[in-house]
Amino acid sequence: MRTLSALTVTGFIALAAGTLTLGGCALSDPKEDPVQIRLNDLDTRLTNVQRVIDNQSLVQLSQRIDTLETQVRQLRGSSEEQQNASESQRKQQRDLYADLNQRLTALEQQVKSGAASGAGAGGDLAAGGNPGAGAGSAGSAIGAGGGAGGAAASDDQAAYQHAFNTLKGGDTAGGINEFTSFMQNYPSSALLDNAQYWLGEAYYVNRDFDHAATAFRAVGQKWPNSRKAPDALLKLGYTQIEQKRYGEARLTLASVSRQFPGSDAAKLAADKLQKMSADPH
Q1: Contact (Cβ atoms closer than 8 angstroms) between residue 232 and residue 219
Q2: Which of 16, 127, 164, 167 is the most exposed place for a label (fewest CB within 10 A)?
Q3: Distance of CA 201 to the CA centre of its chain
Q4: What CATH number does residue 268 fall under?
Q5: Rounded CA gap, 228 and 211, in Å?
Q6: Distance CA 119, CA 164 (A)
Q7: What is the C-alpha end-to-end distance of the chain, expressed in Å?
Q8: Is 22 inside any structural domain?
Q9: Which is nearest to 173 in space by CA: 133, 122, 207, 132?
Q10: Cβ atoms 128, 231 nearer than 8 A
């Protein structure tokens, strides 16, 4: 009996010890579990990495927005510059047409007054010209003579007047064609110097400055005594300004006063030179 009781007590003690051991494992704090600690650490590190990635994405997005805003500002600035340039060009075109119309109106008045029967249609008051041999000979050539010579002069005058009216009507391309044909068909006409000048004006209004310069230069070279010579030299200077050949333009405008002192063209040239001096070209 004693032996059985001892074994029984010993078994109960072992069972209790095992139960306590299991209970101790079940009741241990999970925060102290190494595996759980490592999992928590990894979760924290992953959260930090995700935060960094999110911040970098925001920075890149902000940079792209800044870039787009800069591009929009540049496009707006470019658009405004183009609008200003377009408006400036339209204003210049209107000024050119107004100037041409004023000259043509003055010419019409001169023709109506009968100052010179033939040369009146060929001359004009464009920027003020001194009467020269070219215009004078035009009047005598057309006003004199009869028969075949008179018919030739009449054809000459009619062709010139038609070209002149075409240009006055605003058809610069048609004026260029007709004045060019006139010079080819009537190479000995007394109105040739005037036709050459108006050809230059038509090119100028049409903004074909290379051909305009050639036409204006030809007036002074072929008819240095023409009443159109001062105006042609003045407009050559204006044309060189449009070509951005400012050095040549200054020399040309200065030569107007030397070659034609006291003329209206010389005064206009001096005014233009003064404006150019104030402009840092």
Answers
A1: yes
A2: 16
A3: 22
A4: 1.25.40.10
A5: 17
A6: 13
A7: 132
A8: no
A9: 207
A10: yes
